[in-house]
Design a protein that fits this description.
Elements: E1 2-7, H1 19-22, H2 27-41, E2 44-49, H3 53-62, E3 69-73, H4 82-91, E4 95-99, E5 121-124, H5 129-142
Parallel strand pairs: 1-2, 1-3, 3-4, 4-5
Helix pairs in contact: 3-4
The structure holds 1,3,4-trihydroxy-5-OXO-cyclohexanecarboxylic acid (DQA).
Length: 143
C-alpha cells in the first residue's frame, strides 16, 4: 500500500510558525514520526510540500497510478482552491483532509473547506497526530 502525504503553503514553516496553533514540531520531524508509524503498518509513504497552488494540483495528478491514497493538508488553499478540489476529484484516489489545528474553533473563514466534499474523511485539531490518525483511517479504508 502506497500513500502520498501532500502539504501545502506555509507548512514548511512549522516549528517557527504560530506554535500556539501548530505546535513546535517541524515538517521533517512530523514526516519522520509518520514514516515510523507507516513502517510499523507496512505502508509505503511519499511526502511532498509546495507553497504553490498549481504545483499541488500537479503533485495530486501525478499520484494517479503510483499511490493508492492521499493525505492532504492543503493549508490555506483548503478554504480557497477549487483547482485543488478538482484535482482530488479527477484522480479519484481516496483522500483524507488533514489540519493540525481545529479549524472550526478558529476564524470563520477557516470553517469552510472546498476539499471536504471530495475527501473520504477529515481529521483536524490533533496537532501532528492528525497525520497519524489520517494514516490509520486511510490504511483501513484501503485494505
Ligand atoms: C491548517 C489550517 C489552515 O486554516 C491554515 O491556513 C494552515 C494550516 C492546519 O493544518 O491547521 O495553513 O491547514
Amino acid at each position: 500500500m502506497k500513500i502520498l502525504v501532500v502539504n501545502g503553503p506555509n507548512l514548511n514553516m512549522l516549528g517557527v510558525r504560530e506554535p500556539a496553533h501548530y505546535g513546535t514540531q517541524t515538517l521533517p520531524e512530523i514526516e519522520a514520526a509518520l514514516r515510523a508509524q507507516a513502517d510499523e503498518m507496512g505502508v509505503e509513504l511519499g511526502f511532498v510540500q509546495s507553497n504553490i497552488e498549481g504545483e499541488l494540483v500537479t503533485l495530486i495528478q501525478q499520484a494517479l497510478g503510483v499511490y493508492d491514497g492521499i493525505i492532504l493538508n492543503a493549508g490555506a488553499y483548503t478554504h480557497t482552491s477549487i483547482a485543488i478540489r478538482d484535482a482530488v476529484a479527477a484522480v479519484k484516489l481516496p483522500t483524507v483532509e488533514v489540519h493540525l489545528s481545529n479549524v472550526f474553533g478558529r476564524e470563520e473563514f477557516r470553517h469552510h473547506s472546498h476539499l471536504s466534499a471530495v475527501c473520504v474523511g477529515c481529521i483536524c485539531g490533533f496537532g501532528a497526530d492528525s497525520y497519524k490518525l489520517a494514516l490509520i483511517g486511510l490504511a483501513d479504508k484501503l485494505k
